[in-house]
Amino acid sequence: MKCIIIEDQLPAQRILKKYILDIEYLQLEAVFTNAIEANEFLKTNEIDLMFLDIHLPKLSGIDFLKSLNNPPHVIFTTAFSEFALEGYELNVVDYLLKPFSFQRFFQAVSKINLNNNGDATTNEYAENDKKDIFIKSGFDHIRVKIDDIVYIMSDADYTEIHLENHKHLSSETLRFWEQSLPSQQFSRVHKSYIVNTDKVMKVSGNQIYLEKKKIIPIGRAYKNDFLKRFIG
After folding, report:
1. Which one, out of 15, 18, 36, 146, has a CA that is 20 to 30 A from the CA of 108?
2. Residue 116 — pLDDT band, cuts 50, 70, 90?
């Protein structure tokens, strides 16, 4: 997927370059500090995706996007949340609020698929179709198969991502994982737990029995919704 960065702040450029490099199917074609230069590039080059800052010199990212007759897919990157509504009205793929994590970046990019002709297309089901997720653990980004996650537990300032035979510690919140993982497969069942419903063996009282005899609690506030959605 061919992409460009339009960002006038060097620290933000470096972060985007690093994140793009960490995703093998992204190909960075060019980096621009203003929209005028980017516009000249787009006249002679086909691009699938733009990472576009909103506050740019000479011409704002929003005004630049409005000026394009046939724009590529756009992910806005900005430090200002007040432009989110206008951004979505312009049919952008996503709106990344700085500073954003690699996991949030990956989530945004995952909303775009390449079709059989090699063209990038948005897919409303991409969030549910993705097979892997990156876990930020310390200074590392670890790729984990979503199906391998058994449950996630919140513990003070971090979360524990439990797989079948080991676990990873992440600085992301439980709320973050609740929003990032496929909702048809993962369910919040307690203020401190999210479970992979494919791993549930039985529900008894206020306890959920997972594979390999692991038992976790189910909170009263979550129980009815969980039983309706996944038990019937």
Report:
1. 36
2. very low
Q: Which two tokens mark 101? A: 């994590």
Both ends of the chain: CA-CA distance in Å? 41
CB atoms inside a 10 Å sphere around CB 201: 13
Is there a contact between 181 and 170 (Cβ–Cβ < 8 Å)? no
Shared-domain flag, residues 215 and 101: no
Looking at per-residue pLDDT, the higher value among 23 and 140 belongs to 23
Name the residue range of residue 110's domain. 2-128
One domain for residues 56 and 154: no
pLDDT of residue 53: 94
- Strands of the 215-217 sheet, one edge to the other: 200-204, 207-210, 215-217
- pLDDT tens digits for 180-223? 788 788 888 999 999 998 999 988 889 999 987 899 999 988 88
Please report, to the nearest 10 degrees, the dihedral formed by the alpha carbons of residues 223, 224, 228, 232 taken in order.
Answer: 80
* Percent of the chain scoring above 70 in pLDDT: 87
Annotate 137-165 with b (16+ C-beta within 10 A) or e (fewer): beeebeeeebeebbbbbbeeebbebbeee
Residue 224's CATH number: 2.40.50.1020
